[in-house]
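Exercise 7. Predict the structure of Plastid light harvesting protein from Proboscia inermis.
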Amino acid sequence: MKCFSILTSISLLFPVLAFMPNQKIGTSSRLNAWVDDAVGVTAPVGFFDPLGLSANKSDETMALYREAELKHGRVAMAACLGWYVTAAGVHPAFQSTLSSDPLLAAQQLPAVGWLQFVLGCGAIEFLAEQIKLQPGYVPGDLLGAAQWVDNSDEGWVGYQNREINNGRLAMVAFMGIFVQDLKFGNYGDQIFRN
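Solution. The predicted structure, encoded as tokens:
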């Protein structure tokens, strides 16, 4: 339990790093151009890479990182929503046989529910890999919007920035929600709790 507390404390430090001043990383002028022009480089943080993972990386590697960031952000946004739906006692497929605590509900979920979950995720991953094979694929663009709009449209860039920033927030938020339930047994709405 002590190790868990230490890891939790360290993980809570990383959001603080988001507010450190922007520093140029890497020596490649190509990377610096990517950093300055990339979607997701927004005020007040600018280019966020506190661990220096993008230093001296190729455009292909950076595209892979962006795709992973988008995928994790989308999953985290869905997880936050699903957490509060479950905490509210809503279990569409299993009526009221599961706990309102999402961690307990995951343990109580029948094997067929886990099978559906795993097969559904596998099907989505398979389709995503097939979409990536299409010419003109842009990392994270699973619906093909890059075919008719590009980053010269300010509205489209704004939409992408909102998606990335909301995904980043959801990743941090979900870790807080998860640790709160795991360590303290608190889940669901904590603001209006009596």
